[in-house]
Design brief:
11 helices, globular
Length: 307
């Protein structure tokens, strides 16, 4: 059980107590309350061994880091300055300063750097899965399947978690084929809770286990802001789950988690909500950790073995 980032601005502003100010103090505080986290910074920059080693030292034995793949690894364009300095002259940037369609050989180099940076996690037994979150323009087709096969190989045995953002992967026409393909890869299909609309960049919630690892990401259900023009990520995921919604998921995961070797529930609803009047007028709460702590309690009550 945990959140998608321990350093999100909503947590920094509204969850950590006064006096918990440094990056080291925040991670230690977080790890006293949760046993896993999703590393989000790795989507924007390749992880460096020295930094990863510090994270290992600041967390207790048994704590797990699930790591979001660097954007280029999942076919997102990245700005040239996001790459390590010694790699930049090997990539061609467009007029906007972005690297969009590098060769497989250059992508392979990025995968290799990513893999090497996580070695301290492996040595400490603290590496969970690698989250491959594909953008909404990666649709179900042969070329996408081919890329997924290749990307899984580049992870060199690290557990692979696959999240789609285009509904063609899990619509009625392709759902069975997608599930069979992900299972054949030996990867985990990420189960998502998100707004229930027909938008192309929203996949339905499919309760399926394609590997021994069950991984659920809670994005919130804010349909009004998901595709808001000019909206930020914090607006898209601005949602506080209520008690009934969390209880329903706790019951659902009790059944599904029983079939898995490992099960994780990760909250990505990273907005803020007004606190209760008892907390003082004008005070806000960070949605993700508040929901995760409550869900942790509910899963314990129902007997759902979810980390």
């Amino acid at each position: 059980m945990g959140t998608c980032s321990w350093a999100d601005k909503s947590l920094v502003a509204h969850w950590y107590p006064r006096g918990v100010n440094s990056p080291e103090e925040r991670l230690r505080y977080y790890a006293e309350r949760f046993d896993t986290v999703e590393l989000d910074a790795s989507y924007y920059r390749l992880p460096e061994e020295e930094t990863v080693r510090k994270w290992v030292e600041r967390t207790p034995p048994g704590f797990l880091f699930h790591v979001k793949a660097f954007g280029m690894m999942t076919r997102h364009p990245v700005r040239l300055e996001q790459l390590p300095p010694d790699l930049r002259d090997r990539f061609q940037a467009d007029e906007r300063g972005r690297v969009d369609r590098p060769s497989r050989a250059l992508r392979a180099e990025v995968f290799a750097r990513f893999h090497a940076g996580l070695e301290p996690f492996r040595q400490a037994g603290k590496l969970g899965g690698i989250l491959l979150q594909f953008p909404s323009y990666v649709v179900y087709k042969d070329a996408s399947l081919d890329y997924l096969r290749w990307a899984k190989e580049q992870l060199r045995g690290d557990p692979c978690l696959v999240e789609f953002r285009h509904r063609s992967w899990l619509d009625d026409e392709h759902r069975a084929d997608t599930l069979a393909f992900i299972e054949e890869l030996g990867a985990s299909l990420v189960v998502v809770d998100a707004p229930k609309t027909e938008a192309k960049n929203l996949v339905p919630t499919v309760l399926a286990l394609t590997s021994p690892i069950l991984y659920v990401r809670f994005h919130g259900r804010n349909a009004g802001t998901w595709n808001k023009r000019g909206g930020s990520a914090s607006e898209r995921f601005d949602y506080l789950y209520d008690e009934e919604e969390l209880e329903e998921w706790a019951r659902t995961l009790r059944e599904l988690a029983g079939e898995a070797k490992e099960a994780y529930a990760m909250f990505n609803n990273n907005g803020r909500s007004p606190g209760s009047p008892a907390r003082g007028e004008g005070e806000w709460i960070a949605q993700a950790p508040v929901n995760a702590l409550r869900f942790q309690e509910l899963c314990g009550r129902t007997g759902a073995a979810v980390a």
